[in-house]
Amino acid sequence: MQARSGAANEERVTPLELFFDLVFVFALTQVTGFISDDPTWSGLVKGLLVLGVLWWAWAAYAWLTNTINPDEGEIRLAMFGAMGAMLIASLAVPDVFGDDAFLFACAYALVRIAHLALYAFAGRGDRDLIAAVARLAIGSSFGIGLLFAASALDGPAQVAVWALALGIDLAGVYLGGGRGWRLSAGHFAERHALIVIVAFGESIVAVGVGATSDLDAGVVTAALLGIVIAAGLWWAYFDVVAIVAERKLRETTGNAQLAMARDSYSYLHLPMVAGIVLLAVGIKKTLEHVGDPLKPVPAVALCGGVALYLVAHLLFRLRNVRSLNRQRLVASILLLALIPLAVELPALATLAAVAAIVTALIGYEAIRFAEARARVRHPGAEATA
To answer: pTM value?
Structure first.
């Protein structure tokens, strides 16, 4: 078992990590289908809870494989085992609050227990890392136990226990303030950038799944508008934000770096991914009936999902560089203001309005901050000119 160290291998995300992420792709697809099949407020809350639980399992393995090379020794086989358990948990998502609740809890427990065992094995001889794993195990144990308890319940009580389980698990990493963990900054940032691309892949899948009816002009237009929105949101993250965030993470050291990685990536990438999943739900529902108004929950998913994604960017920037992106705040407000209209207008018109807001935002930023953008993307250009 090899630790990650040195500049030579800090940047590289291994093929096994990408292979592991394929299971998470399926998990996102399952969550999108879960909300789409139950487009009610209850279904929306349940779907987001499931997404949060699955995300936290993925985030745990992102930290693990950032510490050790998963493509060496026994850990490769252990990762395959974790993939199998995650696949079973994902398969249980459609009926996770019904007959498959206990199956999900069992599979999820295996995923999390394997993670803790691998981390403990990797930390042999490192007292600080072992202490950090022990603190993490406290929150994880409570979270897993509550999911088992929830499998014996139903209705609002079951949802409440799920929410408590997720809350305890998310709060557990604050124990110790990040002390003891190990981080390779470049690899960690790259891993999360790739999972954002994976999430965008789900929005593309939603276009394909939703466009199953006759390909008339409305469906084709909606599909293209869906790609425009996905491309705009991709640009919003990868053009400048991801580059600046990675550099900031590299420049920070010690416990401050660990806290930044936890807050900016483990926490704030969750609402980004949730926003993309909700967008996928909205696109899928739009493609089903392009000429009819969206129902309230799909309208919130479409407009609110993009707004949630941009709000996560606001918080991401505040955490990293302590400044507010005003134009993205304005775009988020406009998207939220569009929700009451979305339940009255044809779904295609709402989709076009969302695409217009996203396109206008990207266009404004590209023109207004052209010089700053060039300095970020090509830092050595002026010196070589």
So the answer is: 0.93
